[in-house]
Structures are given as structure tokens and as C-alpha cells.
Write a structure and sequence with these properties.
Elements (H helix, E strand, L loop, with lengths): L2 E3 L6 E3 L1 E4 L9 H13 L4 E3 L15 H10 L8 E6 L20 H15 L4 E6 L8 H13 L3 E7 L3 H14 L4 E5 L13 H8 L2 E2 L24 H8 L1 H10 L2 H17 L3 H10 L7 E3 L7 H5 L8 H13 L6
Parallel strand pairs: 3-4, 3-10, 4-5, 5-6, 6-7, 7-8, 8-9
Antiparallel strand pairs: 1-2
């Protein structure tokens, strides 16, 4: 298993990170533990969760994923695992959190309560990486960053990061941290895959110039890059099959991930993978972790059998020829997720 540093911090992690957002919903605790054990045994030491998991957010599910991860952690020495979790962003924005009666925001009050609750559910006295799950561009970054800096000083958090952030927001946060002498975001966790390469347009350059590590989520395009939705299929139990039934915001998200252009590009990427003698899942994972600004690619699974194709990318480096074929598809089917 390859490893890389998170930003300019002292923390080095496996280049594949196991995400947990399905644990407690699509994957029950027994299956979640099998996935976690198999990942750990294969050399993955980095695990990502959030106070808002599992998804889709439901108040009765709030925090269940962290509890599952916390119980599993007790089977390992604490120092063996690098744990990342997140504080919810504002619930008046694009997503309403399942925590604190849907009244979350990024102020000191919420950040302190969030970390204390997460530490209790995880049954640990610190987390390695603490992230803002989504930003609030209408609020002052100073308050959130001061609260996060205090957590670092108190030893409850080792380093901080952000998620679903923009180029402006990341640069704004770095400016505040530098001016005020506060801990800075060492990582950014945004949606990034073969079907969604918008990160490459601006944020990749911010990461390179400022020494920030990308830890992209959804490298399989929400599972689309497994090929399971090809031909318009809506497999039982699949995330976007369920989201289409739920309706509302979830249905709109499903249509962004599963549409004519994403299915067309997925078929093309599938042909490239087949020619290279690997699965499409392995291709998509390897491509993600191979980007120079990526420290660790966050994958996910609802069944332990899905982990094998992910692990096949652990030490795989795609050839220049394969990368050129991938880029050709990207140029022909530009921004399939909009």
C-alpha cells in the first residue's frame, strides 16, 4: 500500500481511504465491520466518517456511523488508525444536517458541541483530521478557524481540513489562518472522479501552490463508474435507485450522477479498462490516487465483495497510454455531471 503526507502536516496516510457514509444504512454493522477489517488487513490505515452519516441524512440515524466506527476501533490499537470526521456546515444552505435538530452552523458553539459528541460516539479522546463538511460563505471564517485552532491546541484534533469548498473559500481560509496565526486547512475533500473533473480547473492549482492535499470522495462517481447503471439499469438497493424513489433533493442528485452523458463516458472508460485488463472500478480508483495533488482517495462500499477491485488499485500506476485515452474521453464528453 502506497502512502503520502496530508498537506504540510506530519501525518502520513495510505493512498486509499475507506469512507463510511453507508454504514448504518445500506450496510449494517456486521457488514461494515467486515469491510473495515478487510480494508485494514490490506494496509488501509485511513478512515473517513462524519457526524452527519449515514446518508441520506435522517434524524433517527444521526451519528450511527461514528458509533459503528468507534466500536470497530476498539479492536485495534488507537495509533494504528488515522480517523477523519466532520462537523456539519450550515443547515440553512444546500443541505440540512441530521444533527442538532437541523440547526447546525459553523460557529464556536456548534463546532465545540460537534467535536465533543463525535469523540463520545467514536469513544476516543482525539481525531486525527477534523473537517468542515460544507462551508458557509456568508459567515466570517475567523470564528470557525479560531474554534478549530483551539481544538488543535487542546489536543482533541491533530489537523483540520475542509470539504465541498471552492477555490475562493479555500484561499480565504488560508489567508485568515496566515494573518491570525491559526491552524490551516491541510486537506480538501471534494467530489472528484473521471465523470467529474471540475476540481482540475482551479482547485488543483490551489492545492499544488499552497501545499494542500486533496482527499477526493466519490472516485467511482457515486457508484456509476462501477458500470451498474449502464443501459439505464436501476439495480435494487443501489444508492441512486433509492434516491430516485425518495424524490426531492436526493432525486436531483441522482439525475446529476446518472444521466445520458455520465453513462456514455462510463461505457467509454469501461472499454479502456477492459483493454488494460483491469476492472472499471480499479481504473477509476487508480486514476484518482495517481493525481499529483491527491494524498488519499476516499472509496466506499456497501458489501465486502466490492473491496477487492478497489484494493487492486493500491499499487497500480496507470500507463501514459491509458491516461491519454482517459483524457480523450474527457475532452469528447466534457463535464458529464454538469
Amino acid at each position: 500500500m502506497q502512502h503520502k503526507r496530508l498537506g504540510r502536516s506530519a501525518i502520513v496516510v495510505s493512498k486509499i481511504c475507506m469512507g463510511t457514509m453507508t454504514f448504518g444504512a445500506q450496510a449494517d454493522e456486521k457488514m461494515a465491520r467486515r469491510i473495515l477489517d478487510k480494508s485494514f488487513d490490506a494496509g488501509i490505515n485511513f478512515f473517513d466518517t462524519a457526524e452527519n452519516y449515514p446518508v441520506p441524512p435522517k434524524e433517527e440515524w444521526a451519528g450511527v456511523t461514528e458509533e459503528i466506527v468507534g466500536r470497530w476501533m476498539k479492536t485495534k490499537r488507537r495509533e494504528q488508525v488515522i480517523i477523519a470526521t466532520k462537523v456539519s456546515g450550515p443547515s440553512h444552505g444546500w443541505l440540512k444536517s441530521s444533527q442538532r435538530s437541523g440547526m447546525t452552523c459553523l460557529d464556536r458553539h456548534n463546532i465545540v458541541r460537534a467535536i465533543e459528541a463525535s469523540l463520545k460516539r467514536l469513544d476516543t479522546d482525539y481525531v486525527d483530521l477534523y473537517q468542515t463538511h460544507w462551508p458557509d460563505h456568508g459567515a466570517r471564517y475567523e470564528e470557525a478557524l479560531r474554534a478549530l485552532d483551539d481544538l488543535v491546541e487542546a489536543g482533541k484534533v491533530r489537523i483540520i481540513g475542509c470539504s465541498n469548498e471552492t477555490s475562493w473559500g479555500l484561499m480565504k481560509s488560508l489567508s485568515v489562518s496566515e494573518r491570525e496565526g491559526l491552524a490551516r486547512y491541510e486537506t480538501i475533500q471534494n467530489n472528484h472522479s473521471l465523470n467529474n473533473r471540475r476540481f482540475d480547473d482551479e482547485l488543483a492549482q490551489v492545492c499544488r501552490q499552497e501545499g494542500i492535499s486533496s482527499i477526493p470522495y466519490s472516485p467511482l462517481g457515486g457508484g456509476v463508474l462501477s458500470g451498474k447503471y449502464n443501459g439505464g439499469a436501476t439495480p435494487d438497493g443501489a444508492r441512486f435507485s433509492n434516491y430516485l424513489k425518495i424524490g426531492g433533493r436526493q432525486a436531483n442528485m441522482a439525475k446529476r450522477f446518472v444521466n445520458e452523458k455520465t453513462l456514455a463516458s462510463t461505457e467509454r472508460f469501461g472499454a479502456i479498462a477492459a483493454e488494460a485488463g483491469i476492472s472499471l472500478v480499479t481504473l477509476a480508483t487508480a486514476w484518482s490516487k495517481q493525481q499529483d495533488y491527491v494524498a488519499s482517495t476516499i472509496v466506499g462500499a456497501t458489501h465486502v465483495d466490492q473491496v477487492d477491485d478497489i484494493l487492486a488499485a493500491a499499487d497500480l500506476t496507470l500507463s501514459d497510454e491509458v491516461l491519454k485515452k482517459i483524457d480523450a474521453v474527457t475532452k469528447e464528453i466534457l463535464y458529464p455531471m454538469g
